């Protein structure tokens, strides 16, 4: 079972070429978004994160030349299932290994991911539909704007989980206890209020089928800085493939309030 | 009563020259630590803060040329009661107005302050001895080390409040709800465990008299980056005088979880 794997074993598989969403993998271990940019843009990214802590909670920063760190006993260039390479506002490649594009002057940000609290949701009896359905979580660009930082601006990106109406309050209180991995939802109910026209057409990830009586619940998403580097046309940014996260050696409970 | 003043009125007095600790001023408004450094060291300070969020919760960053911002409708160079100017690891001046030393390339960090939750402590029935005694809060350099960031390293600095033994639990749970302004205590009880030899000889602020049955309770303190710029011998850093904070226009409740 992938849920029972140790992070190092999971990363071994990804390093060997497996590309797959990581929701449900390595239960109890923290998953992270990746965004790596040239050093000259690192200040803007760190400041953007500080100004938009809900979508961009920084778990760690790897400085130029560092490939692992306090929460990663591995290699950030190879240990994710999938990467995206962005140049001048275009998505130019989706490799399963980023070494071809990596440069010595890249600063890598590891940003909290809502997969971290899914295990706690399940433990509290809240079903997680996309795990049930073996799919990636659906993610959407919204019409809410992030606070700008230097060259970086962009929309808030959210992930969505359909939650049975009588468990929405539980989902809120469970996730509120994880402020470093997006915390409580940013919106509950009508997707139109976030400018989302069609839940079946996510901007990232897969559509997910709600069950009868489910309400859509939206959390801030660590794909937000990806949308910002695209919109802001940074010359180079290497990120994870949405839903295909870095599985770190940190424990979910490290981020439990 | 200074507790009832609006922040703009308090800042007016400080701008006019009043130098005084701000604990208890402008009840309900958030107070902040200041650290301003040349742009070339700003990355290290922001990364140091990210790596040491308990002592260094960043509330806002003013970029070069910005003298106010989202939480300050004023002038960061004049609106604090007192400043410290540090050069190459030495404290060189303690002016009540920093304009003489300010430079256009300075980046100013506004960092959360535990004065923010003192009003909540009082509201929960926890006495705050240094307010009762009309003194500055006592602060101590500890033997705990912060995580290093680039050129910046230093000790954890803590503030101490004596709390009646039967109210320690209340003090913990009240302050835990303010994670952006240092949150729950880092230590309760024996000061020797933090390497503090004598509570009556604080490194910053004033000694405070405990009442019978009080236990010393220690919170991470926003003076921590001051200790780091001194130890790390940055060429220039302008900070607040410990205990003489920037009173912002943000509400304490903005930082309540």
What does this structure look like?
Chain A has 257 residues and is an alpha+beta fold. The first copy, chain A, has 2 domains: 2-114 and 231-255, PSTPO5379-like, CATH 3.40.1640.10; 123-220, 2-Layer Sandwich (PSTPO5379-like fold), CATH 3.30.2040.10. Helices cover 19% and strands 26% of the residues of chain A. Chain A has helices at 7-15, 39-51, 118-123, 129-132, 168-176, 224-231, and strands at residues 29-38, 58-62, 83-87, 90-93, 106-112, 139-145, 155-164, 187-188, 214-220, 237-240, 246-251. In chain A, strands 1, 2, 3, 4, 5, 10 and 11 form a 7-stranded antiparallel beta sheet that branches. Chain A has a 4-stranded antiparallel beta sheet with strand order 6-7-9-8, with helices on one face. In chain A, a hairpin with a 2-residue loop joins strand 3 and strand 4 (90-93). Chain A is globular. The A-B interface holds A 42-43, 46-47, 50-51, 58, 60-61, 63, 150, 176, 179, 257 and B 42-43, 46-47, 50-51, 58, 61, 63, 150, 176, 179, 257.
Tags for this entry?
257 residues, 7-stranded antiparallel beta sheet, globular, PSTPO5379-like fold, homodimer, alpha+beta, 2 domains, PSTPO5379-like
How would you describe the shape of chain A?
globular
Beta-strand content of chain A: 25-35%
Q: In angstroms, what separates the terminal alpha carbons of chain A?
A: 29 Å
Radius of gyration of chain A: 17 Å
Give the chain pair forming the largest contact, with residue counts: A-B, 14 and 13 residues
* CATH architecture tag of the largest domain in chain A: 3-Layer(aba) Sandwich
**Largest beta-sheet details of chain A:** 7 strands, antiparallel
Uncertain segments of chain A of ≥5 residues (pLDDT<50)?
none
Oligomer: homodimer
Name the CATH homologous superfamily of the largest domain in chain A.
Answer: PSTPO5379-like
Per CATH, what is the topology of the largest domain in chain A? PSTPO5379-like
Order of helices and strands of chain A: HEHEEEEHHEEHEEHEE
The CATH class of the largest domain in chain A is: Alpha Beta
Q: In which range does the helix fraction of chain A lie?
A: 10-25%
Integer average pLDDT of chain A: 95
How many discrete structural domains of chain A?
2
Q: Give the helix/strand class of chain A.
A: alpha+beta
């Amino acid at each position: 079972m992938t849920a029972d794997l140790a992070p190092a074993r999971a990363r071994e598989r990804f390093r060997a070429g497996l590309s797959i969403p990581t929701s449900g993998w390595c239960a109890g271990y923290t998953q992270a978004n990746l965004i790596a940019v040239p050093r000259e843009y690192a200040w803007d990214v760190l400041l953007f994160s500080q100004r938009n802590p809900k979508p961009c909670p920084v778990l760690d920063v790897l400085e130029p030349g560092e490939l692992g760190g306090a929460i990663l006993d591995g290699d950030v260039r190879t240990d994710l299932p999938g990467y995206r390479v962005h140049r001048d506002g275009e998505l130019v490649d989706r490799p399963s290994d980023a070494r071809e594009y990596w440069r010595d002057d890249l600063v890598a940000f590891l940003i909290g991911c809502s997969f971290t609290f899914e295990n706690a949701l399940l433990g509290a009896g809240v079903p997680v539909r996309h795990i049930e359905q073996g799919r990636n979580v659906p993610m959407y660009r919204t019409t809410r704007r992030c606070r700008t930082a230097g060259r970086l601006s962009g929309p808030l990106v959210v992930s969505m989980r359909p939650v049975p109406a009588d468990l929405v309050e539980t989902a809120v209180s469970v996730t509120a206890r994880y402020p470093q991995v997006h915390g409580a939802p940013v919106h509950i109910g009508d997707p139109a209020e976030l400018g989302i026209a069609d839940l079946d057409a996510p901007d990232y990830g897969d559509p997910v089928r709600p069950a009868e009586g489910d309400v859509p619940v939206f959390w801030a998403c660590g794909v937000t800085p990806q949308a910002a580097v695209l919109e802001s046309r940074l010359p180079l940014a290497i990120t994870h493939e949405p839903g295909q996260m870095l599985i770190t050696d940190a424990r979910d409970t490290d981020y439990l309030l």
